[in-house]
Write a structure and sequence with these properties.
Distance between the termini: 19 Å
Bound molecules: adenosine-5'-triphosphate, magnesium ion
Number of domains: 2
Helix content: 10-25%
CATH class of the largest domain: Alpha Beta
CATH topology of the largest domain: Rossmann fold
Largest sheet: 12 strands, antiparallel
């Protein structure tokens, strides 16, 4: 298995910068999941790793070897495309065998491997069918099978489960986790689904506008997001945010917002003193962290229940407060109903605080954030000139090119 290093990688298409100074190391056997909104550069990053796209600047190394200029077929990378990219006119069996054929591998050995792969993926009953005669999940497994036939050093999976229904998605997700464990495979996995990201990843990379905002374990990103974007991207329902001010009052430091106040950790005192007097900050509260305060309590936010959504194991309650709509996750079933008055508070040690102007985290449940004013800001660095080079591989050829 391989490790992977991207160093200062940029990709500029004409006037659009798709990937912005990305530094990424993936260890041998590690599963890194890339998440981020549509158009943030996830696929482009994978295509650069695979060699299907040239870089505008930076280097790509696999297991310490610089492969930046190496064609896709010589990187020993297996890529599963979101669209499956199966050959429609070939049977499942021929789809599996095709790569081995064009690589002129010994036939007997390839046949045995195809049988093995088909058995592992439970598609051995489907070998005579064409892709059009398969369900989405079955096609998905054939696409994976083709990659397994290749025995790559590095797997790149681009939203491979996005077309599956919820049940199948969970099932194939489990299969992938087992596969990853069994093969000790190095994988980069792209998804829109943050449950997939949280459950599968050794580390998650959150991208936005071509920038790799933060890379860390799922817990790290959840508990210690670097900024409000990362905090909002992980967690469902999304973290609740409120604009307001922090101040030190008689009983200690607190966050004051329209319609109430919440006590914040006493350890924030010096942070609060360091903030300019009128500095606007944003407070974050995860939906599962709300507690019901007594209606006569002084602290907390008063509101009225608007929507109650029972999900079986938990209930999502939407509360309308003065200036905001609050999402509250309650374990099990809830006795609340629309129109009930509630007062919500949250344990101080579970609160997040962000600079309202930059979105940078100032404090999280993991602690306070020391911001070096000189920390590099990849988003502000000047990028290289747009590529004038033609892409090495046109899209239509991409699958074939990876297999040579
Ligand atoms: N060949 C290209 N020429 C010009 N712009 C491109 C090209 N390929 C991608 N882009 C642009 O680069 C940006 C990043 O695209 P990319 O496909 O990497 O996004 P993504 O994160 O994979 O999005 P999605 O989640 O929708 O798949 C987008 O704005 C896209 O329009
Ligand atoms: Mg994409």
């Amino acid at each position: 298995m391989s490790s992977l290093q991207l160093q200062g990688v940029w990709k500029v298409f004409g006037r659009h910068t798709a990937v912005r100074n990305v530094h990424l190391s993936v260890a041998e056997g590690e599963m890194v999941v890339l998440v981020g909104p549509s158009g943030c550069g996830k696929t482009t990053t994978l295509r650069i790793v695979a060699g299907l796209e040239t870089v505008s600047a930076g280097t790509v190394s696999i297991s310490g070897r610089d492969v930046t200029r190496l064609p896709p077929g010589r990187r020993n990378i297996g890529m599963v495309f979101q669209s499956y990219a199966l050959y429609p006119h070939m049977s499942v069996y021929r789809n599996l065998m095709f790569g081995a054929q064009i690589r002129h591998e010994p036939k007997r050995e390839a046949q045995e491997r195809a049988q093995d792969v088909a058995r592992v993926l439970e598609i051995d009953q489907l070998l005579d069918r064409r892709p059009a005669q398969l369900s989405g999940g079955q096609r998905q497994r054939v696409a994976l099978g083709r990659v397994l036939m290749r025995r790559p050093d590095l797997f790149l999976l681009d939203e491979p489960l996005s077309n599956l229904d919820a049940a199948l998605r969970t099932e194939v997700r489990g299969e992938l986790i087992r596969l990853h464990r069994r093969l000790e495979a190095t994988m980069i996995y792209v998804t829109h689904d943050q449950v997939e990201a949280m459950t599968m990843a050794d580390r998650i990379g959150v991208m936005s506008h071509g920038i790799l905002m933060q890379l860390g374990s799922p817990e790290e990103l959840y508990e210690a997001p670097r900024n409000i974007f990362v905090a909002g991207f992980l967690g469902s329902p999304k973290i609740n945010t409120f604009s307001g001010r922090v101040e030190v009052a008689g009983n200690g430091p607190l966050f004051r917002l329209q319609g109430g106040w919440l006590p914040v950790p006493p350890s924030w005192r010096s942070l609060i003193e360091a903030l300019a007097n009128d500095q606007q900050v944003t407070l974050g509260v995860r939906p599962e962290d709300w507690r019901s305060a007594s209606p006569s309590a002084d602290e907390g936010i008063a509101g009225v229940v608007d929507i109650v959504e029972p999900l079986g194991g938990e209930t999502i309650v939407t509360v309308t407060a003065d200036a905001s709509s609050i999402r509250w996750r309650v374990g099990g079933r809830s006795e609340l109903s629309a129109g009930t008055s509630v007062r919500l508070t949250a344990p101080a040690h579970r609160l997040y605080l962000f600079d309202a102007r930059t979105g940078d985290a100032l404090a999280t449940p993991a602690g306070q954030v020391a911001h070096a004013p000189t920390a590099p800001r990849p988003d502000l660095e000047e990028g290289p000139a747009p590529d004038t080079e033609e892409p090495t591989v046109r899209d239509g050829d991409r699958v074939r090119e990876l297999e040579t």
